[in-house]
Amino acid sequence: MSITTFTEEHTEGYNLQWKIKSILHQEKSAYQEITVADTVQFGRCLILDGAMQITVQDAFIYHELMAHICLASHRQPRNVLIIGGGDGGIIKEVLKHPMVEKVTLVEIDERVVALSKKYLPEFSRSLDHPKVSVVIQDGFDFIAKHQNHFDVILVDSSDPSGPAAPLFSKKFYQLVQEALKQEGIFTAQIGSPLFELDKLKTVYERVKSLFPIARYYMASIPTYSTGPYSLIYGSKGIDPLSPRDVPYLEGLTQYYTPEIHRAAFALPPFIHNAIVGKDTDLSAQARK
Question: Where is the active site (predicted)?
Fold first, then answer.
């Protein structure tokens, strides 16, 4: 078996290198370079514009934390929007909540959906579920036309470059706020706390200016840059530290538990101080 390597570049002094058994597919779509490969350590993976997106071995960590934090916090999450995530992994987790009645996935690149269906069936088979509608459209344009419509919005975008760049703007977060119903919740991935603290602080401040409750949370994901990875939670009034009971998830998750749910919001001081502020008490924010 011939082994090759793929290098994911992050900074001038830090790269990740993967041993690749084979390139299963590679193409330039209308929006980005798409590669599906089989890695030695993590199995099949999806790479967009040279950045690792998911692998079959550890994607459950990211997918479960993005989906279940919001779905377990909301009291009646019936109508869910996912922006990005054309592989279907987030949908797979959302559908584990029986009260969800409708899931809309908006993906800008139809080739991501098509290639995920061919090469990543572990995730993509959820795209064909009867509760799911797949819309091939720019998420920014879609959300601008759906005010007061969704209970939960999950932004599963790639990094803030290329087609995903508008999904990190204050205007986009404003549109998210307007698209949510009265007790709506959203979450989005926002990057590495070790490499991108300034960007994370900017996103936190944008979300905090629009939502009564804004919280930053983390997970350790081996295939993402540096391991620790961050997400932002914005809510019109529901505190994620008081989730409802979700006994139906027992045995259905590999990473998420009620204990992990709460622990994800516990920040190391260097991150809390840099992003939230040394003198800010988030528990007090939640009581307001």
Answer: 156 (proton acceptor)
